[in-house]
Amino acid sequence: MMPNWFDAGGSAYALYRPDYPPELAQYLASLAPARRLAVDVGCGSGQFTCLLADAFDAVIGLDPSADQIAHAKPHERVRYAAAPAESLALPDHCADLVTAAQAAHWFDLPRFYAEVRRVAAPGALLALVSYGVPCLDDAVNERFDRFYTQEIGPYWPPERRMVDEGYANIAFPFSPLPAPAIDIMRQWSAADFLGYVSTWSAVRRAREDGHEALLTSFSHDLLGAWGNPADRRTIRWPVAMRLGLVA
């Protein structure tokens, strides 16, 4: 029998969520006025937070979920605390860099921006970072694109549109800086890729609404186009950024 690729549970999130390349943290550090403190807002399990710790003397990861904070990835230069983006538990003018990775679309942006201005050191950098729709090779991308845009599309929350647009159309009242072209790259088997898809909130909503057949049909078609499921194909996620200096 074909396994249920979409029944992996919470452990799939840690296994299959792509993390950002180290050069991204180094690039952001090069734009910051100093490397004393970076603050990662909406840090979740701390993947991006710990990446920043390789480029800064200290990093604070903040997330409204106490459960996420309790299970966040440890690092000797990282301190975590539970706090929402709209009320950062930090002193004034302390941060050389404020980041939000795959999180800003959940924020009340005007209130968040007010907090950024409060905690930013002179000349600090704000970076809103996201990755959007994965790109696969031609053999499987057509079927995946139909699944993403037509089949699972209605189950995404409205905020997902901001991620798909790379935050290009959100209000961003800061002095803009150019962003480099950076990709996340992975070599994945079919099981890896389907495990990643299983972590999507839209997939969970489709299952809750009783549309298991839609997911089964997609996994069947994808495996047919993939060929040998153990073969590793290149998966690419373009990284999008809005970068700005905080006056």
Topology:
Layout: H1 11-16, H2 22-31, E1 37-41, H3 47-52, E2 58-63, H4 66-70, E3 78-82, E4 95-101, H5 109-119, E5 120-131, H6 138-151, H7 160-164, E6 175-177, E7 182-188, H8 190-197, H9 201-208, H10 212-226, E8 233-245
Parallel strand pairs: 1-2, 1-4, 2-3, 4-5
Antiparallel strand pairs: 5-8, 6-8, 7-8
Helix pairs in contact: 6-10
Mean pLDDT level? 91
Assign the CATH class.
Answer: Alpha Beta
What is the count of DSSP helices, taking H or I runs of 4+ residues? Answer: 10
From the 3D coordinates, which CATH architecture would you assign?
Answer: 3-Layer(aba) Sandwich
> Ends: how far apart?
60 Å
Round the Cα radius of gyration to an integer and report it: 19 Å
Please report the total strand number as a whole number.
8
- Tell me the CATH superfamily: Vaccinia Virus protein VP39
Q: Spans of 5+ residues with little confidence (pLDDT < 50)?
A: 1-5
SSE succession: HHEHEHEEHEHHEEHHHE
Number of domains: 1
Describe the structure.
The protein is an alpha/beta fold and 247 residues long. The chain has a single domain, classed as Rossmann fold (3-Layer(aba) Sandwich). Helix content is 36%, strand content 23%. The chain contains ten helices and eight strands. Strands 1, 2, 3, 4, 5, 6, 7 and 8 form an eight-stranded mixed sheet that branches. β1, α3 and β2 form a beta-alpha-beta unit. α6 runs antiparallel to α10. The longest helix is centred in the last third of the chain and has 15 residues. The radius of gyration is 19 Å and the shape is elongated. The N terminus is likely disordered.
